[in-house]
Design goal:
- The protein contains 18 helices and 17 strands.
- By secondary structure, the protein is α/β, with parallel strands linked by helices.
- The strands form five sheets. Strands 1, 2, 3, 4, 7, 15 and 16 form a seven-stranded mixed β-sheet that branches. Strands 9-12-8-13 form a four-stranded mixed β-sheet. A two-stranded antiparallel sheet has the order 5-6.
């Protein structure tokens, strides 16, 4: 009797903590945690899961709604507790510690040739750690400039195009020309300054992280790395052409002031266009411009959204088949349109819907070939370096509290001490 009771309790415990697997009827269940949050994006994700389930009765995918807020800590807890979802939606700059920690499956031998060849090598580099591939990069977002088209047109300034962009020096001169009388040429939303600074610095030839022959990474804040920070600092503190109040704001926080005519331009991620379409006052004329170019041309860093498979997933083959279905070119287009971003797949990028001039789609698509892995992509310890060193240092520099020499010291000396702990 005691043996039977113990067996029953154990069975109930297993049923209560199950995260997927094979049911008694032989059907496989895979848990897919999506971080989609915009209504159109959630709808596209859920519809694709529904379509898969309708045509794959033996492999059911269960949609689980996740959140970008604290996703790293949430996944780490799930991994360590053995409760991670089978299929994981994340961003490539969050994968390094999970990949090296053995939490993600190596997809090298699991993915079909079609998917491997459709996504460019430069995108695969964002999810390659050591000799393995630990995620499929599928959506990417260039940084662009959202401009008040009427303001720019009446000012007579040269309007940049992907073929003839502004230089960083020209961008500074134009924002100074546009500002004045209580208005500003630009509003930089730099509550999270590290990603924007590092990714845009590639256009000026910046690199910041340097990997030696021994594989160890060090920070060197050279002249090319300083072009973008110096420009922003000068706009905010010397020219007074950048709004000082938005330096601590998020992107969405700048939109009311932008619509009210307080600033002519706002550098934002490409997906913010959806919010602008939804929130802009009737008749407000806006346009999408490419970010400035430097020695590196229009090159900028990106951390694509990714789909990974947990190392503990008992059905990796079936999970990879779902990824292949989910990321077929027409489906990738649906996901991109839902998130107002760009697909990584070359076939999907050809879709006419992504080349419309309306809402700036054509400008963003023209930038796709210039996107490269974010500088910190494979740097172990980057999250701690960003949170404890780079974010406060850049925030103080942009506000004028410290100078460029102190910024360099903190990024290099303090930053390298943090990174060293991860590279022993």
């Amino acid at each position: 009797m005691r043996t039977r009771l113990l067996a029953l309790v154990l069975l109930l415990m297993l049923a209560g903590c199950s995260t997927g697997g094979t049911r008694d009827d032989g059907r496989i269940t895979l848990r897919f945690q999506s971080l989609a949050w915009q209504e159109e994006s959630v709808e596209a994700n859920q519809q694709l899961v529904k379509e898969w389930n309708a045509t794959h009765p033996d492999v059911r995918v269960e949609y689980v709604q996740g959140s970008w807020d604290s996703v790293h800590d949430q996944l780490l807890t799930a991994f360590e507790g053995g409760e991670a979802p089978d299929i994981i939606h994340d961003a490539s700059d969050d994968l390094a510690d999970f990949a090296y920690g053995g939490y993600l499956a190596d997809l090298t031998g699991l993915l079909p040739a079609r998917l491997k060849s459709d996504i460019p090598r430069r995108s695969w580099e964002t999810t390659t750690f050591g000799d393995g591939v630990y995620g499929v990069p599928f959506l990417q977002e260039p940084r662009v400039i959202i401009a008040n088209a009427t303001w720019l047109r009446t000012s007579g300034v040269r309007i940049p195009t992907p073929e003839k962009p502004w230089s960083w020096a020209e961008f500074r001169r134009i924002t100074e020309r546009l500002g004045g009388r209580g208005k500003y040429g630009v509003a930089w939303p730099l509550k999270e300054p590290v990603s924007a600074t590092l990714n845009l610095s590639l256009s000026a030839g910046g690199q910041l992280f340097h990997r030696g022959a021994d594989g160890k990474v060090t920070v060197r804040f050279g002249a090319a790395d300083q072009v973008v920070p110096r420009t922003v600092h000068a706009q905010a503190n010397t020219d007074h052409s950048a709004s000082p109040t938005t330096l601590g704001s998020g992107g969405s926080d700048t939109l009311p002031g932008f619509f009210a005519g307080r600033y002519a331009m706002v550098p934002l991620g490409f997906s913010y266009r959806q919010q602008i379409v939804q929130q802009a006052p009737k008749g407000f004329d806006w346009q999408v411009l490419p970010a400035p170019a430097g020695a590196g041309g229009l090159t900028q860093g990106v951390s694509p959204q990714t789909l990974s498979i947990a190392e503990d997933c008992p059905h990796e083959k079936e999970a990879a088949e779902f990824l292949d279905f989910f990321l077929r070119p027409p489906n990738m287009v649906r996901l991109a349109l839902g998130d107002w971003m760009l697909p990584t797949g070359t076939e999907a990028l050809k879709d006419p819907a992504l080349h419309r001039t309306k809402d700036g789609w054509a400008t963003g698509t023209a930038l796709a070939g210039h996107l490269r892995p974010a500088p910190a992509q494979s740097v172990r310890g980057y999250p701690e370096w960003k949170d404890k060193v780079a974010t406060p240092a850049l925030q103080e520099y942009y506000s004028g509290a410290i100078g460029i020499d102190e910024l360099r010291r903190r990024l290099e000396e303090d930053g390298n001490l943090v990174l060293a702990r991860y590279q022993r």
